[in-house]
Amino acid sequence: MSTMPLSDDRRAKRNVTVLVAAQAILGAQMPMIFTTAGLAGQSLAPNPCWATLPISASVLGSMLSAAPMSAFMQRRGRRQGFVLGSLAGALGAAIGALGLLNGSFMLFVIGALFTGVYMSAQGFYRFAATDTASDGYKPKAISYVMAGGLLSAVIGPQLVKVTADSMVVPFLGTYFGVIVLNLIGMWLFAFLDIPRPVLAPKGTPREGRSRMQLLREPVIAVAIICATVSYALMNLVMTSTPLAVVGCGFQTSNAADIVSAHVLAMYAPSFFTGHLIARFGVEKIIAAGLVILAGSGAVALSGVELEHFFIALVLLGIGWNFGFIGGTTMLARSHTQAERGTIQGVNDAIVFGGVTLASISSGQLMNCSGSNVETGWQLVNVAMLPFLVLAGGALIWLAMRPRAA
Q1: CA distance 159 to 74
Q2: How far apart are CA 190 and CA 146, in angstroms?
Q3: What DSSP element (H or E) covers 379?
Q4: pLDDT, tens digit, for every residue of 111-125?
Q5: Cβ–Cβ under 8 Å, residues 79 and 194
Q6: What's this model's pTM, rounded to 2 decimal places?
Q7: Residues contacting 98, CB < 8 A, separation 6+
Q8: Eight-state DSSP code of residue 27
Q9: Residue 254's closest CA among 239, 266, 243?
Q10: Does residue 321 register a pLDDT over 90?
Q11: Which of 7, 114, 129, 289 is deepest in the core (most CB within 10 A)?
Q12: How many CB atoms within 10 Å of residue 128?
């Protein structure tokens, strides 16, 4: 194990390189699944209202596994946690493939739950980037790792185009592709150089603040609210997008291209988001993200031509990037190393809890609340408004609080 001090960013940059590669290769499975799971669910589900349940199950699996995964990494280290996540992703895809082969919606949903364990592990890539980074490098490290999603935005949808109809059973080839990505990509983590946290001996007093003390900290509370709203609203709209695109008369390939553009927009700003945070402050970048998310909803409500879908989903990705990276940076600056395992797990459990509700609501609004596809799509986008007001209000409240001396 290297004896280089944690403040030396040479180690951090090496780890960031590994995590960027993992985000690109392993992360490609998420746009693959988000493009196909709703469409496959629509063909398997006994009721069209539940078409997006597999996506919701993945997010639920991520929510349920976030705290245990964080605790596991706190005890066993990042490397073993990330390998475990990849194995869960391969298992989830295998069960999903079995569900497709047997025409079983239940099996397909169970597989999606295991995919959520991978999704949870991937969420910790951004935190792992800060483990060996100096305070000045942390926002850039988070941004660079998130930027690895640019390649996943290209790889994933292109693999969907190649694999979706490659077998007699639609999308079966896509799920086989996800298995391969996980089994190959997990070897990247052999190159991580992140020391395991030093655990206090049993019976010694607990280091750091308790869970409730951390959640009562205003900066932490607002960071979690803004990250949750940004991620949940992105998922709310993205979950229904393939159904809306195909339902409006376009092709699955069009839906894949729109998802690809969306994921590119999610991660492309990451090359400069960290620099923007350093220059203008994290609160202003989060606020900009919320405004851009509102703009996405406005474009989506203005029409259902392909250009409306493309522009709305690109704005959705950029807004998510600013809001989520901003919230992550705000959180990372607000806790100690000893508090890492506690607050990061709680944060992701809350974030993905919100995303789970958004995902379930997306399918209900899209398929069961309107008289047609266009009405359902409009309801999905109108539903963004109250949550944008909530996050914006929390950010204003934090800005108006007296600064500690």
Answers
A1: 34
A2: 20
A3: helix 373-382
A4: 999 999 999 999 889
A5: yes
A6: 0.74
A7: 104, 107, 111
A8: G
A9: 243
A10: yes
A11: 129
A12: 28
